[in-house]
Design a protein that fits this description.
single chain; 116 residues; mainly beta; two-stranded antiparallel ribbon; 1 helix; 8% helix; 45% strand; globular
Length: 116
Amino acid sequence: KDNNSVELRPLKINYIPIGFELVDINMGRNVLIYNYSTDNNQEFYIKLFNSSGENKSYYDTEGIEIEEIIFKGSQAYMWRTDEMTYLIWHQDGIECHIIGNLNKDEILKVAENISK
């Protein structure tokens, strides 16, 4: 076991938009991914990374305006592509990503309701 890795504990997800259900949880060495979807094929997922891990996420943001916000006391990044909204921030030593075809307000509401 890696001595300098933070244990990736699941965070509590206290709010999910109406109609969405948890369909899958994927667990890796330094990542935990919760997949949610609806009957009419809307979906979003929450990815939690161990911040000290070597995992890096890359998104194609060329030509996209990225909004920088302070969220839960840390720098956060939010942007929208044709169908998806993205939010990335750090919380409790964990890098959190929410990606889905939700609007900005719903993504922020899900994120605000994630706790230890």
